[in-house]
Amino acid sequence: MTAKSALRPFLCVINTVCLAAVLSVSLLGTGCKPSASKTGEAGSAGGKKVIRVEGSDTMINLAQAWAEAYHKKHPDVSVQVSGGGSGVGIASLIAGVVDMANASRDMEEKEFKRAEAEQGKKPVEHTVALDALAVYVKKDIPLEAISLEELAEIYGDGGKITKWSQLNVKNEGCGSDDITRVGRQNNSGTYAYFREVVLGKQRDYKLGSVDQSGSKDVVTLVSRTPCAIGYSGMGYLAGDVKWLKISRKKGEPGVEPGIASALDGTYPLARPLYIYTLGEATGAAKDYLDWIKSEEGQKIVADLGYVPVTSEPKAPNAEAAPKSEPAAPAAEPAK
Amino acid sequence: MPKRRPRVNPRRRPRNRQSDVKAAWTNKLNLASGAMTMQRQANTARSGIGWCAQLGRATHWLLDISELPMEWLIRLCGWSAIFFVFAIFFFVLKEGAGVLGKLDLKEFLTSPNWRPDSAVRPQYGILALLVGTFSVTTLAMLIAVPLGLGSAVYVSEFAGRRTKETLKVVIELLAAIPSVVWGFVGYMVLGPIIIRLTGAPIGINVLNGGIILALMSVPIIVSVGEDALRAVPDSYREAAAALGANRWETVYRVLFPAAKKGLLAAVLLGVGRAVGETMAVLMATGHAVQIPHSLLDPVRTLTATIAAELGETVAGDDHYAVLFVIGVVLFAVAFAVNLTADVVVNGWRGGRND
To answer: Which terminal residue of chain B, N or C, has fewer Cβ atoms less than 10 Å from its own Cβ?
Structure first.
C-alpha cells in the first residue's frame, strides 16, 4: 500500500466532516448576522473597552504603534488593528463592524452616501498624519531627479516615455533600456493617490505595469530589478534603492523627499492619512482620537517616518485638486 | 540477455482480503484506463469499500448492525462531490449574474484593457488575462509533461526498490510544499537568476511563472502517472520481453498505449493545477496586465486577478461581479479541458471498452 492509498479511507470521512462543517457555518452565519451589524460605538468586553480599527496597509505600522502605546497608557482600553487596505476599512465602517477606518485616500462620494444610507450617520474625516510617497530606483542608476510631467509620461496611459534613454539616462545594468514600471495593485490607496497627483483625475495608468500587493514589495522588487522604477511610501527606503528628487515641472529643481519638504508643501508627493469615524466619535473612541492628535500621538508619527499633523475634522471633499494643477496641495498643518 | 529485475513487483504480491476487494473494484471500474473523472469515481468508491472492509475485519457484529447507515454514509461521500461542484458553480454564477446584462461580452472577451478602476470609463477586458493564464500554463506543461512522465517511467519501470521508495517519498514531499513558498522562490531566487542569465528587464515573468508552475505540477504528474503505469499487468511486460523488445521499447510501444488513459489523467491533473494555481503565479509572473510578446514579459493571470482584487471590491459592485464572471470563465475552462480529454480518450459516444 502506498502512502496515498493508505490515506484513502480517511478522505471519505474528511468529506463528510467538511460537509457538516459547511452546513453548520452557514447556519451560524445566518444566526449571527443581526448581532454583528449593530455594533455602533466602541464595544466593551468584560469591562474592557475595545476599539476596532481596520483599513489602509500603509498605515498599519502606525496604527499598531498607536494602539500599543495607548494600551500601555490606558490598560482598560484595547485597540484592535487590522489591515486589508483603505477600501476594506471603509467597507467595514459602512457595514458597521469597526469603530474606525484607516484610509490613505479620501472617502469617495458614493461611499459617503452608502454609509449614510446603511448606518444613518455621516462619516467624519480626521487627518492624523502626512505620508509622502517616494519614487524609487536602484542606487547605481545615474538619475537624481524627475518631474511629475515625466512620471506622467512614464506611468500614464498613452505616455511616450518607455526607455531610459528618453530620460537621458544611461542605465548600464539594464540591457534592454526599457523602463519597467513597478506599481501597486488597483485597490491600494497608494495607487489611487499616485494617479491623482501624477496623472490627474481623468487619466488612467498605462497597462502593463508590474503591480505589487504591498508597499514593501515595490521597494524589494525595484532593488532587484535594474530596469525598474517604482513608487511607494517614504518609509520604505532600503539598502539598494534611492529616492528621486521630485519637481512639478520639467526643468525645475527637484525637491528631496523628507519631513520638512512634505510639511511645507514643496514636495509634491505628500498626502494626508485619515481616520474615519461614523458620526462624531464619542466615549473611548473620542479619547483615543484626541490622544492620536496630541503631541504624544504625533511623536509616534514622526518616529515611524511619517509627517506629523494636527487638524480639525473637515467636511468631505472640501479640498479638490484644481484641474490645471494635478498636484493636490498637501493638507495644511495647523501648527 | 541482460539480467533484469523480477518483473512481478514484490510489493504487490502479498494480497490480503482488503486488497482483493479493492482489486475486484479496480477491475470493474478499469482504473488503468480511467480518464480523470473515472479515476475520481474509482477513488471514492475504493475509499468507501476499503473502510468498510477494515471495519468488517475488526468487528463483524458492528458491521452487521451498522450496514445501513454505513451504506448511506458511503452514498453521501459519493454524491457530495457532485453536490459541491454544483453548489460552487451556482454560487459563483449567482454573484456574477448581476453584471451579465450590463457587461459588454464582446469587450469582455476580446479587449486587453482591464481597467476596473478607470477614472474615465471602467473597462473589463480579460483577453490579456486569458493570454496570461494560457501562456504560463502552456509553458509549464511543455516543461512538466516530459519531466513528469519521464520520472514516472523511471520510478515505475527502471528504478531499484530503494531508489524507488526514496524518490516517491521525496516527490510526495515536493507536492506538499505550499504554493506561497513556490511563489517566494520564484520572486526571490529565480527572478534575479533569470535577469542575470537572460538580461531580461525584470525577473518575474512568463518564464519564471512557467518554471515554478511546472515544478508544482511535476509531483502530481509523477504520482498519478506512476500509478497508471503500475496498473498495467505484468503479463504485458512479459509478453513484450518475450517478443524481444528491450526496456525502452516496452515502455514506449506497450506501456504507454496500455496506460494511455491514466497518463492522460495525470497530465490533466497537472494542467488543472497549473490553470488553477493562484498564489505562486501572483508572485512569480509579475502581475502586469499586458499581452506578452516574449517569455520575458511579465503577465497577469485570471486567478491572480481574482485573488488580488476580490478582497477590496465592494460587494455587489460591478467590479466584484465581474470577478465572479471570471470565476465562471475559469469553470468553463476546466470543464472544456476535462471534456476534451474525455472525448479524446473515449470518443464522442463515450463508449468505454473495458
So the answer is: N
What is the per-residue pLDDT across A191-250, written as a single tens digit (0 to 9) for each?
888 998 899 878 899 998 999 888 888 998 999 888 999 998 887 888 889 999 999 988
Number of H helices, E strands in chain A: 10, 12
Vertex A165: Cα angle to A162 and A170 (nearest 5): 130
Residue of chain B minimizing CA distance to A17:
B77
- Strand, coil or helix: B163: helix
Of B280, B272, B262, B182, residue with least CA distance to B223: B262
Residue in A closest to B191 by C-alpha: A224
Whether residue A174 lies within 8 A of chain B, CB to CB, comes out as yes
| C-alpha radius of gyration, chain A, whole number | 23
Nearest to A227 among B47, B77, B202 (CB): B202
Measure A86 CA to nearest chain B CA, in Å.
Answer: 8
Q: Cβ(A19)–Cβ(B80) under 8 Å?
A: yes
3-state secondary structure (DSSP) of residue B316: coil
Q: Which residues of A touch B203 (CB under 8 A)?
A: 224-225
Contacts of A122 (CB under 8 A, 6+ apart): A112, A115, A116, A278, A279
Rounded to two decimals, the pTM is 0.68
Task: Please state the domain extents for chain B.
Answer: 13-78, 105-346
A35 and chain B in contact, CB less than 8 A: no
Contact at CB, B309 and A186, closer than 8 angstroms: yes
Strands B123-124 and A43-45: unpaired
Cell of B325: 464572471
pLDDT in tens, B87-113: 999 999 998 988 888 888 899 999 999
The answer to whether residues B150 and B167 touch, using CB atoms and an 8 Å cutoff, is no
Q: How many whole angstroms separate alpha carbon A28 and alpha carbon A32?
A: 6
- Measure in Å the smallest separation between the Cα of A93 and chain B Cα atoms: 12
| CA–CA min distance B122, chain A (Å) | 10
What is the ipTM metric for this complex? 0.70
Cβ within 8 Å, pair A87-B313: yes
Residues 6+ apart with CB under 8 A from B253: B240, B245
Q: Nearest 10 degrees: CA dihedral of B263, B268, B271, B273? A: -100
Q: Which CATH superfamily is domain B105-346 in?
A: MetI-like (1.10.3720.10)
